[in-house]
Specification:
Pfam families: Creatinase_N, Creatinase_N_2, Peptidase_M24, Peptidase_M24_C. It is a single chain. By secondary structure, this protein is of the alpha+beta class. It is 36% helix and 18% strand. It has a six-stranded mixed beta sheet, with helices on both faces. Bound molecules: 2-acetamido-2-deoxy-beta-D-glucopyranose (NAG) (5 copies) and manganese (II) ion (MN). The site of manganese (II) ion (MN) has 5 residues, from loops.
C-alpha cells in the first residue's frame, strides 16, 4: 500500500515535471518581423479574419479542434483549384501548410518563403519556420495546443497516406481523423474550376520511344498478378506520350488531370482516366493514338489498345480491379483507401523518365541553345534600354512580360515553365519572389537585377537564372557574384566515379560558399524534364538527400547568395550528366561529369577575375567558346546582330594565368597590382565580417 502511494507520488511528480518541460508554445504572430501591423502594411497582405471565422464555424460543426490544410489534390498537384492554403491564409507560395485551431492559426513553411509569408499573411497568422532552431515541429506545436482525445482533422483528398500515418504516430493520443468533405471548399466563393483543356500527342520524333514500348517497360517493373496504379501526372503524360495544358499555376506544365492503371498481364489493356474523355478522344487523333473506339473501349485481342474512361470513375473502379494494387510510395490518402490490396512501391517510372533517351537528350541540348539565344536577345535589348536610358518606365513585370513574349515566338514553344522571377534589389533576396502589380518595382541602374525564367518547348523544359547590374556594382555585390560563380563552376566541372550519390556531388557547389561562411537555404539543383515539369524527381542535388545520378540525367546548377532587405544573386544553368572522356582511369572505373546545356554568358562587370583559379579560368574560357559557337551561331542565323554583339562582349578570352601565386596563395609582390589586390583583400575581409 505504502509503496503504491510512493509510486503514485513519484508518478505525479514525473507528470508535473513532464508538463513543465513539454514544448509549450509561446509563439505568437508577433514573432514575425511584420507583426503587429504598423503603417507599412505590405501591399500584398490579405485580410483573413472572415474566412478564418467561417472555417472555425465549420470545424465546430464537425467537432474538430484542429484542421490541417494543404494545397495538394489526389494527383499530388496544387493547381489554382486546390490552393486552399492561399484561400485561408493569403500565403501563395507553393510549399507550406496551415494548422487552424479554435483560437490560433499557423503557417509552416521553409526558408525560401519566410519573407513572402510574412508579407502576404495578416497578423492572424503565426509563422512556424521549418528547420529554424527554437521553433517547434508542427507535431509538438499541435500537442502543446491540444489535450488528450482532441480531434485533429486532415482532408483525405489533400493528404498523402504517409503524412496521415506520421500525424497518427506523432500526435500520441490525439484523435487523428480522416475528413472526406473539404471544410475550406464549403465556403469558397469564386473557387477556380478544375481545368479541363485539350490534350495532344507528343509525337515519336520528339519522344524517341512509343508509348507501347514504355508500357512494356512498366510491365517489366512489376510482378505477375500486379497492376501499377499511376497517379502522378508527369508519369502519366510520359507513359502515354500525351501532353495537355491543365497546370498553369506557379509552375506551368503541359499536364492533364488523369489516373492510369497498367496491369502486368499483357492480355489486360491499360486504362487511362480522363476528364470529359469522349470529347478528348474525338480530337487531335487521340482515339487513333490509343487505338480505342469512341466509347474508349478496346476491340477484343487488341493488346496495343488503351481503354479510356471518365476521370471520376477511377475511385469506383479501383476497388473492383482484382489484381494486386501497386501504388506509388507517395500516394494520396483517398487513392490509398480506395485500393483493396494496397502495396506501396517507389515508382520505377520516375527513373525511366529522368534518364533521357538519346533522342530526348540530343534534342534537349538543341532546345537549350534556342532558349539561351532567346534570353541573350532579351538581355541585349533590355540592357540597352536601361543603360542608355531609352525608356525609364521598365519595371520587373514589364521586363518579365517582354522576355516571355520573345520565348513565345519560338515555333515549338508552348509557353513559360514557371512565372518569371524578375526582381531588382531587395526583391531578389526573396527566393521565390514573383513580381505582381502590388510589389512591382522600377528597374534601376544602381541595384542587382536577378532574372530566373524558363520555357516549355516540345523538345524540352528550360530554367535559367542570371544576375545583372546596369550601373556600377559595389564591392560586396561583386564578391557575392564571384563566390556564387565559383560554386557554379565547382559543380559544373566536377568529375566523379560512377556510383557516387547526389549528396556528395552537391559538395562541389557548396564548398566555395561555405568557405566564406555563407550558404543558401535551397537545393543546388533539381532534375528537369523533357516537356513536363520544371522540377523533376526522383533525384536532386542537395547534401540532405542521397539519390542516384547516372548519364543522360539533367540537373540545374543554381547556387545563390541572399542578403535580406538588400539584394540577391543566383546563377542557374542546366547541365547534363555524361561519361567523362579521360584517357585512363583508376582501376578502369567509369567517371562521370557534367556538360553545359544552358549557354548564356556570365556578367564580366560582376566578376572579380583576380579571385578565379587557373582551373576556373579554363572552365570559363571553354564555356564562353561554347556560348559563342552555339548560341552565337543561332543568333547570327536569325540576323540578331545586337544580341551577337552583346554575347561577344561577354565571351572574351581570359588569360589562364591568375595574377596571384598558386603555391603561396598570395598576390604577386610589388607594383600597382599589389595595391589593388591588397585593397580588395581588405575590403573583402571587411565584407566577409559584415556579411557573415
Ligand atoms: C480585417 O477584416 C475585418 C472584418 O472585415 C475587420 O474588422 C478588420 O479591421 C480588418 N483588419 C485589418 C487589419 O484591416
Ligand atoms: C517568440 O516571441 C517570444 C516573446 O517575445 C519569445 O519568448 C520567443 O523566444 C520567440 N520565439 C522564437 C522561436 O523566436
Ligand atoms: C459555409 O458552408 C456551409 C456548408 O455549405 C454552410 O452550412 C454555412 O452556412 C456556410 N457559412 C457561411 C458563413 O456562408
Ligand atoms: C512508333 O509509332 C509510330 C507511329 O505512331 C511509327 O511510325 C513508328 O514506326 C513507331 N516506332 C517504333 C520504334 O515502334
Ligand atoms: C514606356 O513608355 C513609352 C512611352 O510612353 C511606351 O511607348 C512604352 O510602351 C512604355 N514601356 C513600358 C515597358 O511600359
Ligand atoms: Mn531552377
Amino acid at each position: 500500500m505504502k509503496s503504491k502511494i510512493v509510486l503514485f507520488v513519484a508518478f505525479s511528480v514525473f507528470l508535473a515535471a513532464n508538463a513543465t518541460i513539454s514544448p509549450l508554445s509561446n509563439l505568437t504572430p508577433n514573432n514575425r518581423t511584420k507583426c503587429p501591423e504598423d503603417n507599412n502594411r505590405p501591399p500584398n497582405r490579405v485580410n483573413t479574419t472572415v474566412v478564418l471565422k467561417v472555417l472555425r464555424d465549420e470545424m465546430k460543426k464537425e467537432g474538430l479542434s484542429v484542421y490541417i490544410i494543404t494545397n495538394s489534390d489526389e494527383n499530388l498537384n496544387s493547381g489554382a483549384h486546390n490552393m486552399r492554403v492561399k484561400r485561408i491564409s493569403g500565403f501563395s507560395g507553393s510549399s507550406g501548410f496551415a494548422i487552424v485551431t479554435d483560437d490560433k492559426a499557423v503557417l509552416s513553411t521553409d526558408s525560401r518563403y519566410f519573407e513572402q509569408a510574412d508579407d502576404e499573411m495578416d497578423c492572424n497568422w503565426i509563422l512556424l519556420k521549418s528547420g529554424v532552431p527554437g521553433y517547434p515541429t508542427p507535431y509538438s506545436w499541435i500537442l502543446s495546443e491540444t489535450n488528450i482525445a482532441d480531434s485533429v482533422g486532415l482532408l483525405d483528398a489533400s493528404t498523402t497516406h504517409s503524412s496521415f500515418q506520421a500525424y497518427t504516430d506523432n500526435l500520441q493520443d490525439r484523435d487523428v481523423r480522416k475528413v472526406t468533405d473539404d471544410l475550406v471548399a464549403r465556403n469558397w466563393t469564386q473557387r477556380p474550376p478544375l481545368p479541363d483543356n485539350d490534350i495532344f500527342i507528343h509525337t515519336y520524333e520528339y519522344t524517341g520511344q512509343n508509348h507501347t514500348d514504355k508500357i512494356s517497360r512498366i510491365r517489366n517493373s512489376i510482378n505477375a498478378g500486379d497492376v501499377r496504379i499511376i497517379t502522378d501526372l508527369p508519369e502519366i503524360a510520359w507513359s502515354f506520350n500525351i501532353r495537355g495544358d491543365d497546370l498553369n499555376g506557379l509552375l506551368t506544365s503541359p499536364l492533364f488531370y488523369s489516373f492510369a492503371l497498367i496491369p502486368k498481364d499483357p492480355a489486360k489493356n491499360p486504362t487511362l482516366y480522363l476528364k470529359n474523355f469522349a470529347a478528348k478522344l474525338g480530337k487531335n487523333n487521340l482515339k487513333e493514338h490509343l487505338k480505342c473506339d469512341n466509347q474508349g473501349q478496346c476491340p477484343p485481342n487488341q493488346q496495343d489498345c488503351i481503354k479510356v474512361k471518365e476521370y471520376a470513375t477511377f475511385f469506383t473502379d479501383l476497388p473492383n480491379t482484382p489484381d494486386r494494387h501497386i501504388l506509388p510510395s507517395n500516394v494520396n490518402l483517398r487513392v490509398h483507401d480506395a485500393a483493396t490490396t494496397p502495396v506501396k512501391r517507389n515508382s520505377a517510372i520516375q527513373m525511366m523518365k529522368a534518364v533521357k533517351n538519346d533522342v530526348e537528350y540530343r534534342r534537349y541540348f538543341e532546345c537549350q541553345v534556342r532558349d539561351s539565344a532567346h534570353l541573350v536577345e532579351f538581355m541585349a535589348f533590355f540592357e540597352d534600354q536601361i543603360v542608355n536610358k531609352k525608356a525609364d518606365n521598365w519595371t520587373e513585370l514589364t521586363a518579365a512580360n517582354y522576355l516571355d513574349s520573345i520565348r513565345r515566338r519560338d515555333p515549338v514553344n508552348r509557353g513559360i515553365s514557371f512565372g518569371t522571377i524578375s526582381s531588382i534589389g531587395p526583391n531578389a533576396a526573396i527566393n521565390h519572389y514573383r513580381p505582381t502589380k502590388l510589389t512591382d518595382r522600377r528597374i534601376t541602374r544602381n541595384e542587382l537585377y536577378l532574372l530566373d525564367s524558363g520555357g516549355q518547348y516540345l523538345d524540352g523544359t528550360t530554367d535559367v537564372t542570371r544576375t545583372f547590374h546596369f550601373g556600377t556594382p559595389t564591392a560586396d555585390e561583386k564578391l557575392a557574384y564571384t563566390t556564387v560563380l565559383k560554386s557554379v563552376i565547382g559543380l559544373a566541372s566536377l568529375v566523379w566515379p560512377e556510383g557516387i550519390k547526389t549528396n556528395l556531388v552537391d559538395m562541389a557547389a557548396r564548398a566555395p560558399t561555405w568557405k566564406t561562411g555563407w550558404g543558401y537555404g535551397h537545393g543546388t539543383g533539381h532534375g528537369i524534364s523533357y516537356f513536363l515539369t520544371v522540377h523533376e524527381g526522383p533525384s536532386n542535388l542537395n547534401y540532405q538527400s542521397a539519390r542516384d545520378i547516372v548519364p543522360n540525367m539533367l540537373f540545374s546548377d543554381e547556387p545563390g547568395f541572399y542578403k535580406s532587405g538588400k539584394y540577391g544573386v543566383r546563377l542557374e544553368s542546366i547541365v547534363g550528366v555524361t561519361k567523362w572522356k579521360g584517357a585512363e582511369t583508376y582501376l578502369g572505373r567509369t567517371y562521370l561529369t557534367f556538360e553545359a546545356a544552358t549557354l548564356v554568358p556570365f556578367e564580366p562587370k560582376l566578376i572579380n577575375y583576380d579571385d578565379l583559379t587557373k582551373d576556373e579560368r579554363v572552365w570559363l574560357n571553354n564555356y564562353n567558346e561554347e556560348c559563342k559557337k552555339k548560341t552565337g551561331e543561332y543568333l547570327k542565323s536569325k540576323g540578331k546582330t545586337e544580341a551577337v554583339k552583346w554575347l561577344e562582349a561577354r565571351t572574351k578570352k581570359l588569360s589562364t594565368t591568375p595574377n596571384w601565386d598558386q603555391t603561396t596563395q598570395r598576390p604577386p609582390s610589388g607594383g600597382s597590382a599589389l595595391r589593388q589586390t591588397s585593397v580588395f583583400g581588405l575590403i573583402s575581409l571587411f565584407l566577409l565580417y559584415v556579411l557573415s
